Amino acid sequence: MSESIEQYLDELYAQLRTDPRSARRLLDEAADHLQSTADELEAAGMDRVAAELEAVRRFGAARPLVAAQTRRTVGRLALETGAAMTFLGGIGLVAIGLSGLLAAAMTALFGRDFVGGGLARSVFGGPPASVAENAGDAVSLRVLAGLVGVVLLAGVWAARRAGLRLRVLPVSYVDLVALVAFAGATVVLGAGSVDQLVQHAGHGIGVFLSGALASLAGAVLFGIRSVRSVLPRA
Amino acid sequence: MASNQVKGSLELLLMGVLQHGPAHGYAIISALRERSDGDFDLAEGTIYPALHRLEASGYVTSSVALSNGRRRRTYTLTAPGRRAFTTQRKEWHGFVRSVAAVVGA
Lengths: 234, 105
Known about the structure:
The complex is a heterodimer.
Chain A: H1 3-15, H2 20-43, H3 48-59, H4 62-70, H5 74-110, H6 112-124, H7 128-161, H8 171-199, H9 205-230
Helix pairs in contact in A: 1-2, 1-3, 1-4, 2-3, 5-6, 5-7, 5-9, 6-7, 6-9, 8-9
Chain B: H1 3-8, H2 10-18, E1 23-24, H3 25-35, H4 47-56, E2 60-67, E3 70-77, H5 79-103
Antiparallel strand pairs in B: 1-3, 2-3
């Protein structure tokens, strides 16, 4: 096989973003078709290099072929973006729910002031009822958000079971967006924790620290997924 | 013939070739060219996504065999494919008659 057919198949391979079996099938068929055309043209008297160039020309450009094979459309992109946003929103809400559980654990371990003391002390002078209300809200509202997240993720799971797969939007993009969002939240909430420690002697630090830890867990999870998507596993 | 007219009827044309018997992609495109006296000059690769769609619809099946050391996939029209072809061919002839009646023969 000369370079023209090889280069065409490389280009086709690089552009194909579909399931492995469909990709292999199209590449197999393209290779067989191009070779058959080149063989026929060579048998008719054309030299091999010219025959392969002509075979590639007749076969057509790779881009429209890939578009027809994978049915990439703006509507499909919008559908997959919606599904990805629902997935990311669900994951984010579950992380908020997790931070609520962490806040509950912190309240149990270190007392209500550790979680609810910051705002209540700075605004209201720290009446015990405000501290308790803040600590309670930090748990209940976040856990409620987490439950909404679970419902959203269940919807995404059901859509996948029904056959919705990411064909246009690369999965690695979705993981990368989640990694950046969680890493950013970890930095912001971590800074809030430090600020609470320095400015308020640690009162209410749990509000930020619980969020920072949940965000960190998300960043680690999506960091691993992102690395695995670009580096092959041994 | 304008390529978009061919593309719009590509699946009907592919079934039209396969009604005569199983064939692989290269043979199908050769048959299309021969039977149209070279009028159907479309990018040859475009038949494969159309064949895959026909297979997904259950109108054709395919099998792979080695030929001259290369994997070659052969397509066969199924019974539902034959029925779909008959229906679509009838609709096509009706459409052609109607267009001819309007624009003149």
